[in-house]
C-alpha cells in the first residue's frame, strides 16, 4: 500500500523517495476456533513535504487504495485502512 501511495504521489511530482514517505503498520489479531486470525491492518504514513501539496496528497490518499494490488486482493478478507500525516520537509545540506 505504501508503494502504491508513493508511486501515485511521484506521478503528481510529489517526492516520496529517500525516506520522505515512511509508514508504521499495525495488525489486529483475534482468535477464531483457537487459531490466530488477522482481522484488521492499519497503515499510518508520514510524508515529509511542504504544506502546499496537502490538497493533492489528500486527493491521492482518497483514491490510491483501489489501484493497489494488495488492497484489492485482501479487502474482502481483512479490514485495511490507512492514514497519512504531512510533516514539514527536512532541510537538505
Low-pLDDT parts are none
Give the termini distance in whole angstroms: 30 Å
Specify Rg, calculated over alpha carbons: 15 Å
Report the sheet with the most strands, covering strand number, pairing sense and barrel closure. Answer: 3 strands, mixed
By oligomeric state, this entry counts as single chain
Structural class label = alpha+beta
Average pLDDT works out at 93
H/E element sequence: HEEHHE
Task: Characterize the overall form.
Answer: elongated
Side-by-side strand order of the widest sheet: 1-2-3
Figure out the total of helices.
3
Number of strands: 3
Q: Estimate the helix proportion, in percent.
A: 25-40%
Question: What fraction of residues sit in β-strands?
Answer: 35-45%
Give a structural overview:
This protein is of the alpha+beta class. The chain has a three-stranded mixed beta sheet with strand order 1-2-3, with no helix packed on it. The protein contains three helices and three strands; from the N terminus they run αββααβ. 28% of the residues lie in helices and 38% in strands. The termini are far apart. The chain has a domain at 1-48 and 79-93.
Amino acid at each position: 500500500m505504501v508503494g502504491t501511495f508513493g508511486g501515485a504521489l511521484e506521478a503528481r511530482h510529489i517526492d516520496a523517495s529517500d525516506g520522505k514517505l515512511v509508514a508504521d503498520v499495525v495488525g489486529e489479531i483475534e482468535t477464531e476456533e483457537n487459531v490466530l486470525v488477522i482481522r484488521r491492518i492499519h497503515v499510518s504514513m508520514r510524508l515529509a513535504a511542504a504544506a502546499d501539496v496537502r490538497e493533492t496528497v489528500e486527493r491521492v490518499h482518497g483514491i490510491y487504495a483501489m489501484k493497489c494490488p494488495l488492497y484489492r486482493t485482501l479487502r474482502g478478507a481483512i479490514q485495511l485502512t490507512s492514514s497519512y500525516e504531512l510533516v514539514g520537509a527536512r532541510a537538505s545540506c
